[in-house]
Amino acid sequence: MNILMVCLGNICRSPLAEGIMKTKVPDGFLIDSAGTISMHEGKHPDKRAVETAAKHGIDISKQRSRPITAGDFEKFDKIYCMDIDVMADVVSKARTEKQRQKVSLFLEVLGDHENAEVPDPYWGGADEFENVFQLLEGGCNKIAGQILS
Ligand code: 4NP
């Protein structure tokens, strides 16, 4: 099972989602992240995201931002989007119905949070990043439960 986490810049939310998800699954699962914009391409995650992950014992400092590619729709089985705008953008890049069906809103895995979004913490502070971490942790636990059962 190959999983791609997607946000806007691939420097805050999806790097955290990638880092957390990797702690939930054994070797052999491909977990990666990408953004819908290429503005931060090649950059490491935002310092605040790195610090929040480190507080929870997860090292995301070596990740690098990259934009989503056409190949990702073939390579990955599941493409989880952090918010509705990101999802709309990702869906617009899918070229077949099969590819489109791989795409979903990350927090929908929690069921009772229909249309729930992982808020963009970019303009916030440490509290916003911690809140994002907790949302991602809950969602990743649920995804791990689904794919490992
Ligand atoms: P992310 O956060 O999508 O969670 O990586 C953002 C990163 C960069 C920008 C906005 C959100 N930006 O406007 O550059």
Write a brief caption for the model.
The chain contains six helices and four strands, in the order βαβααβααβα.
Mean pLDDT: 96
Q: Judging from the principal axes of the Cα atoms, what is the shape? A: globular
Residues in helix, %: 40-55%
The H-and-E topology, N to C, reads as: EHEHHEHHEH
First CA to last CA: what distance?
A: 13 Å
Ligand roster: 4-nitrophenyl phosphate
Structural class: alpha/beta
Q: Superfamily at the CATH H level?
A: Response regulator
- Roughly how many Å is the radius of gyration? 14 Å
How many strand elements? 4
- Just name the CATH architecture: 3-Layer(aba) Sandwich
Strand content: 5-15%
Highest CATH level, the class:
Alpha Beta
Strand order of the largest sheet: 2-1-3-4
Family: Belongs to the low molecular weight phosphotyrosine protein phosphatase family.
Pfam families: LMWPc
Organism: Chryseobacterium hagamense
Keywords: Hydrolase, Protein phosphatase
List keywords for this structure.
Rossmann fold; 149 residues; alpha/beta; binds 4-nitrophenyl phosphate; four-stranded parallel sheet
Describe this structure in words.
Helix content is 40%, strand content 13%. Helix 1 crosses helix 6 (126-148). The chain has a single domain (2-148), classed as Rossmann fold (3-Layer(aba) Sandwich), CATH 3.40.50.2300. The protein contains six helices and four strands; from the N terminus they run βαβααβααβα. It is globular. With 149 residues, the protein is of the alpha/beta class. The model has no long low-confidence stretch (mean pLDDT 96). The chain has helices spanning 13-22, 47-55, 72-75, 84-93, 97-100, 126-148; strands at residues 2-7, 30-35, 78-81, 103-105. The chain starts with a strand and ends with a helix. The protein has a four-stranded parallel β-sheet, sandwiched between helices. It binds 4-nitrophenyl phosphate. This is protein-tyrosine-phosphatase. One of its GO terms (molecular function) is protein tyrosine phosphatase activity. Keywords: Hydrolase, Protein phosphatase.
